[in-house]
Amino acid sequence: MKTHRQAQIIQLLSGCDWLTTDALAITLAVSKETIRRDLNILQHQGKIVRHHGRARVIHPDSRDGGEPFGARLKSHYADKADIARHALDWVSEGMTLALDASSTCFHLARQLPDIPLTVFTNSLPICHEMAKRENITLICSGGTLERKYRCYVNPALMSLLKGLEIDLFIFSCEGVDEAGNMWDPTDYHARYKAQLLSRASQSLLLIDKSKFQRSSEVKIGDLSQVTQLISDAQPSRR
């Protein structure tokens, strides 16, 4: 019965972008607690993504289910700003930093002191923020602007990185599942982070508590590759 109900959930989610826990409970005539348990199982199997009381199915042939930058910036605003503040302890004069296009890294960029640093990023908002700092050398990845995420997509990324020694890569992700795998919604963003993760001397993953026990479409890597995780919570492990 449970397996049949979970198959029904997948079928229902396949017909729309998102469905709430309440809607699924009403449609299947079961309690919200039952639906939450089913969604937990389906998420751990990598079949769905959950976010703020909603769920959607993962479509392998349509990998752009991430939220727009503006929506992410408003979500968990205070928590992300505080996480970014703790990341400042890792930054010192003369370093070369690489930042991804996450909203948490934007919070970090806004708090960076105007000291001699080199910052490499693919984020348009971070570029605008760094342009205000006279002592920071800004290197933009360039490429085609992806307006939804307010970042640049550049297929020549590896060529750009060849002559750049990165001391610290700071990034976030869509989710971290129970096994410690890090996920993002698109191929390009996942590859961007995986490449910088492999090149940087050290790395920081900045992630708020809503991202734990979540998956998405494309795997970045696993937590063992990260030097330090900074969060307002810790992932639960079995």
Rg, rounded, reads 19 Å
The largest sheet has its strands arranged as: 6-5-4-9-12-14
Which of globular, elongated, flat, extended, rod-shaped describes the shape?
A: elongated
Summing up helix and strand content along with how strands pair, one would put the structural category as alpha/beta
Termini Cα gap: 26 Å
Describe the structure in your own words.
- Strand 2 and strand 3 form a beta hairpin.
- The chain has a six-stranded parallel β-sheet with strand order 6-5-4-9-12-14, with helices on both faces.
- The protein has helices at residues 2-14, 21-28, 32-44, 69-74, 77-87, 103-111, 124-130, 157-161, 187-199; strands spanning 19-20, 48-51, 54-57, 96-99, 117-121, 136-140, 144-146, 151-153, 168-171, 175-176, 181-184, 202-207, 218-222, 228-231.
- It folds into two domains: 2-57, Winged helix-like DNA-binding domain superfamily/Winged helix DNA-binding domain (Arc Repressor Mutant, subunit A), CATH 1.10.10.10; 69-231, Rossmann fold.
- With 238 residues, the protein is α/β, with parallel strands linked by helices.
